[in-house]
Every structure is written in structure tokens, then in C-alpha cells.
Design goal:
InterPro entries: F-box-assoc_dom_typ1, F-box-assoc_interact_dom, F-box-like_dom_sf, F-box_dom, SCF_F-box_component. The protein is mostly beta strands and 381 residues long. The protein folds into two domains: 50 residues, no CATH class; 314 residues, Neuraminidase (6 Propeller). The chain is 11% helix and 46% strand. It has five helices and 24 strands. Strands 3-2-1-24 form a four-stranded antiparallel sheet, with no helix packed on it. The chain has a four-stranded antiparallel sheet with strand order 4-5-6-7, with no helix packed on it. A four-stranded antiparallel sheet has the order 8-9-10-11, with no helix packed on it. The relative contact order is 0.14.
Length: 381
């Protein structure tokens, strides 16, 4: 009967009907018949579904957090969250164990990166997992094959993940410094090394055109993928800038940050997406002894990408103590993790704060806003 439906009605009509179903229902049709499975897995349907979903306003939250299992063992889980009419977060699916991330270091040293194409990367310094949020398929990337010469050392500074629209492929990259040590054990003669992994051809390679004077990067500094480039908060000669890596040309460039407030005992920055624009959170370092009742948070938006004059200050917030901002959702809800480990939501419009019943180890939470796409990835068991 099912195959009869496929023969009776034009394929375009069947696609039209499928596009109006939730993705979890579409995925069930893969098991109805071979014809449906072939259609749903075809590149044509995947592209049509991507373009259809891209224009929708329905976004969920993917939250990664870690919980302690015993003295030296932690367990990382993904939570899939959506909201009701009052912006209360609720689970869409049961929590999912994060594969291969059971080590102590996964609590505070991992990065969760969205590609805006249905795949996310969960990165540690030397480990990367690519994960399709919708299909639950994942790939644990092979380690970089490049060895450091005898007498040299490697310090991994940062990493990233994004989509190259020209070659229609996803890229993972790591930035490190390779150096020697002097007779007293201090680093010297350092050179920047960038390694790039391409998902489609499953190969790591080195870039041979890297500027040796890249800005200073730190692994946990805020970063994000946007407009075909990867962006980091970096430092040059004591001043902060936004470093960009073009996913297609594989060339670095800088974006100047706005003149934000400076705090006496430390200023922190977080890159976010707000109103579809590159945005910057500026806030005090609370562990330095600042006063959260008087120190403020600023949110800046770059209305025209890569145009310094288009930076505008959108919000100024007083008395919101956070050192772990996660994501801005629906353009007005800021999610962050409190010092007690709970997930907190703050309404930028109504100046309302809520503590949510979601708990993780301190500084273990990562979050992205996502849409559900069918982007294929080889499944690993």
C-alpha cells in the first residue's frame, strides 16, 4: 500500500507533505518502505528540507552539561530543550549520553560549536566529535597524524569548526604553537601551526601560509562560527580584538571591537548571535572581587558585518552576576550558568531572571540554538 502511494502521487506532492511534518516523524518514514527511505536520504530532499527549515522561526536549545559519577569520573549529557508560551524551558527528547566524553577534562575544557547546517562539534584539545542533533549520528574524528620533531613541544591554543560553502564540506581546525625550550625550560623559537580536517575526504592537512604573528589565543576564550568564518576573542599588544578565519580561503583577519567599558579587576567577553548579527557581551570578572550590584554587562551588536562604525550598544544590564554566559535565545533571553551550577534565564526585555531546574557541574554547561536538519554523517557505534 505504501509503495502504491509513492507510485500514485507525484514525488513533488509527497515532498510537500513531508516538509510539513516534524523531523522526528519524517525520520520514521524511513522505516515504512524502501522507497520512502531512498527519498528521505536523497541529496535533493535533504537540500529542500534544509532550505525549508532555514526560514522557520522554530529554534530549540541543545545544552551540554557534566555530572559527577564518582570521585574522578564525570558523565556528559546532551539535553534538548524548547519553551512554552511563557518561555519556560522543557525537554523535547530524553537526555542523551555524550559519546566518548567521560573524562575529568570534559567538565571545563570542552567547546560546543554549531555549524548552522545541522552538525555540531564537541571539541577538547585533541579530541573532536561531530554530531547530527536530529539523526543522533556522530563521528569521532581521527587524531591528527602530524608528529612533533624531537626536541620540540606543542601547545594547542584553540580550535574551531564550520562549513565551507564553496566546497560544500565541513572543516575542523586546530591552532597550536610548536616551540623549543631554553636551558632553563622556558619556551623559545615558537611557530604557529594550523591543522585542518575536512569531513568529506577524511583527511588532516597543514596550512603552509599562516601568518606567524597571529594574535594571542586561549582555548577557553569565547568563539563562534558566523558568515562563513570562525571568530575568536583574541589579544594583540594588550588590546582585545576579534580574530576571524575564513572557512573558504583559510586566511586570518581581524575585526576591531567596540569601545566597551573596562572593569578595574578584569573584563570578560563573549561572542553571541543576536538579531542575526555578530554580537559581543562585555561583563566583569566576578572572581576578582567586583561588586555585581553595581558593575554592569553591556551587549553590543554589529549591525553591518565587518563594518566597525556599525557597532551599537543594545543593552546595559546592572547586577547580573555571571562568568559563564551560554547563548542568547529568541533575541531576548540570555542563558547562563550560576555559580551554584544551575541554568539561569534572563529576559533582556522584561529584566526578569529565573533559576531553572537544570543542574550541572560548575562551568560545565555549553549551549547552542539549533534547527533540525538532515545533514548526513557517517554513523559510528
Amino acid at each position: 500500500m505504501v509503495d502504491g502511494i509513492m507510485k500514485k502521487y507525484p514525488e513533488a506532492m509527497i515532498i510537500y507533505i513531508l516538509l510539513r511534518l516534524p523531523l522526528k516523524i519524517i525520520l520514521r518514514f524511513k522505516f515504512v518502505s524502501k522507497a520512502f527511505c531512498t527519498l528521505i536520504q536523497s541529496s535533493i530532499f535533504i537540500d529542500i528540507h534544509y532550505n525549508h527549515t532555514l526560514t522557520s522561526t522554530y529554534d530549540n536549545i541543545l545544552l551540554k552539561r557534566s555530572n559527577k559519577e564518582d570521585i574522578e569520573r564525570y558523565k556528559a549529557v546532551f539535553s534538548f530543550l524548547s519553551s512554552d508560551d511563557e518561555d519556560n524551558l522543557n525537554s523535547v527528547y530524553p537526555d542523551l549520553d555524550v559519546p566518548n566524553f567521560l573524562r575529568v577534562t570534559s567538565v571545563t575544557s570542552d567547546k560546543l560549536i554549531d555549524s548552522n547546517h545541522g552538525l555540531i562539534a564537541l571539541m577538547e584539545h585533541r579530541t573532536t566529535i561531530l554530531f547530527n542533533i536530529s539523526t543522533r549520528n556522530y563521528r569521532h574524528l581521527p587524531p591528527s597524524p602530524f608528529q612533533i620533531s624531537k626536541g620540540f613541544y606543542q601547545s594547542i591554543k584553540s580550535g574551531g569548526f564550520g562549513y565551507d560553502s564553496v566546497v560544500n564540506d565541513f572543516k575542523v581546525f586546530r591552532i597550536s604553537e610548536v616551540y623549543t625550550e631554553d636551558r632553563y625550560g622556558y619556551p623559545e623559537d615558537g611557530e604557529t601551526q594550523v591543522e585542518v580536517y575536512e569531513l568529506g575526504i577524511d583527511i588532516w592537512r597543514k596550512l603552509d601560509h599562516v601568518d606567524q604573528e597571529l594574535p594571542i589565543l586561549f582555548w577557553l576564550n569565547s568563539s563562534m562560527s558566523y558568515k562563513g568564518a570562525y571568530h575568536w576573542i583574541a589579544s594583540v599588544a594588550g588590546a582585545n580584538i576579534i580574530l576571524c578565519f575564513d572557512m573558504t580561503t583559510e586566511i586570518f583577519r581581524n575585526i576591531e571591537m567596540p569601545k566597551t567599558s573596562k572593569f578595574l579587576k578584569g573584563t570578560l567577553y563573549s561572542l553571541q548571535l543576536l538579531n542575526e548579527s555578530l554580537s559581543l557581551l562585555c561583563y566583569p570578572c566576578l572572581s576578582s572581587g567586583t561588586d555585581p550590584t553595581t558593575d554592569l554587562m553591556e551587549i553590543w551588536i554589529m549591525k553591518d558585518y565587518n563594518i566597525y562604525e556599525s557597532w551599537i550598544r543594545k543593552y546595559t544590564i546592572i547586577g547580573l552576576p555571571t562568568e559563564n554566559p551560554l547563548v542568547v535565545w529568541k533575541d531576548y533571553i540570555l542563558l547562563f550558568q550560576s555559580n551554584s551550577g544551575y541554568l539561569i534565564s534572563y529576559d533582556l526585555k522584561q529584566d526578569e531572571i529565573k533559576e531553572l531546574n537544570i543542574l550541572g557541574c560548575q562551568k560545565s554547561m555549553r549551549a547552542i540554538v539549533y534547527k533540525e536538519f538532515l545533514t548526513p554523517i557517517q554513523r559510528q557505534s
